[in-house]
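Workshop exercise sheet. Pairs work together: one partner reads the sequence aloud, the other fills in the structure field after running the prediction. Swap roles for the next sheet.
Pair: D.N. / O.F.
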Amino acid sequence: MHRHIAHLTSLFDNATEGIILTDTSGTVILINPAARKMFAYTEDEIVGQPIEILIPHSHRHHHVELRDHFNGHPTNRRMGHGRDLYGMRKNGEKFSVEVSLSSYEREGKLFVIAFIIDITQRKLIETAMLAQQNRLEQITEQVRKLNTELEAKVEERTLILREALAKLQRSQEELSEALVKEKELNEIKGRFVSMASHEFRTPLSTVLSSASLLSKYTATEDQPKRDKHISKIKNAVSQLNEILEDFLSLGKLDEGKVESRPTELNLEEFLRDLEEETSVLLKKGQKIGLEFEGKPDIFVDRKLLKNVLVNLVTNAIKFSGEEKTIRIVANVGRKNATLKVADEGIGIPREDQGHLFSSFFRSANATNIQGTGLGLHIVKRFVDLMNGKVKIDSELNKGTTVTITIPITK
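Structure field:
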């Protein structure tokens, strides 16, 4: 459990967004390094202070009213929709921010989590685009006047101005592309904030409530109650560990730290071991059926292949009901191996199937089932590293089949 807590602490300390935890009075309880760097305060200078210390003087009084209203009607939301928000550094410098709020209750008290992003760069891009737009409008007006007043030189002047317009247009397109990419990044961050606040809240609440109750069961005859809450804590920590493993895998992929290193592998034995390992996750009446055809000895990266198949099999178990069968079908050819994981689960809506490999994406009928929305994204990237292909066939309420094809020769 200490190792998982260390992972959580590392996630908090190494997050690129600012994270601040306050109580109902607006007093800062926790602040991560990214937020301290953003506002140029040390931890001792900010913890225990009102959150309004980070807000420009002209906005502080109104913020107290907004905070009191949020405490009365707490919801997960983005602040300042349709208007600009500002933070204030220790030296009094104002800067543009984007803020998302989440909340939870512990022992009857409300705590608020603020996720803060410095959007100064985005504002600079938007300002530059407006300036370029104004410049384009001015040049267009100049073209109209020159065409009227300088008919004799219209062709020569128009050519010069067209070149200038083309350069400015290219510049505007580059700025627009930069803004689109920045907005896409913030959309991914927004999905991460929404996912994290939802997926972390339930297991964390379980850990906190069970840990509090454990201290009350001190008598010998209370052991069954203690065992019950210890089991709840273990399951909650296991859920948190799965989330963190997905984050760590995605981080390593983004940093280019994952490579395919093929070695010789007996695929049939490998799949039977996988079947045995994942069988402990089966629900009541569920079973795994393995079908194998071809020569078992292949050349492939064992670690990447195991990560892919474990992800697909656990997904099949999670999204299938009791008494259902999960099929693993392997067919080894001369140059490639085809592996299928098929379930009889809830399926995927047709309109969502084109987004399944996007990071933090979850289909509409899976929002109430625990998960990060990273699994299939990581599967696709691991299969790409093995120079393979992945395909998904699914029908709503009938099941899903994921097929991967990978080269197996040395």
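Discussion prompt: The domain at 263-407 is CATH 3.30.565.10 (Heat Shock Protein 90). What would you look at next?
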